[in-house]
Amino acid sequence: MSKATEPRRLYTPRSSRWNALRLDPETIGNSTEAIARFFGTGRYLLIQSIIVIIWITVNLVAVEYRFDPYPFILLNLAFSTQAAYAAPLILLAQNRQENRDRVTLEEDRRRASQTKADTEFLARELAALRLALGEVVTREYLRDELDELRTVLTDLAPRRPGEEPAPASDTRVPAAKKSP
Description:
- This protein has 180 residues and is mainly α.
- It has helices at residues 25-39, 42-61, 73-134, 139-156.
- The model is unreliable at 173-180 (pLDDT under 50).
């Protein structure tokens, strides 16, 4: 069965001309954010104020150029139209900023969690190093142990006849005598 003769299902939408017009949502979002940002600037307020002052002045003073008499209905319509477009643009910009903030917050949380895990790991490593360093032989400890061993060895060494025992507090090793 060909596509042309295939029966249409009710849940399948009809194709339309609008499907051919594909706009990039990111481009539209960026342009609407730029417009919304411009609405919030002092430059925009200054330009709008100058236009309103000129509009009112022309319609009050210049009788021959009057196009919107005193109640300024056309000016009111222009403001209403502007507000109708500005409000959704501003809401769209706020929603996009909220999404960016959410992504940034999630990334910050992930990074903080990783930093905390790294810090805890380093703290455990430092504690292990401190414990290991407590068991390491220091120079003083080794010197004291060698001195005790020298004392014990000198006490146990056989004496030659006529030689006096070396005092226990003497830490010098007796020099070997050279035989002639």
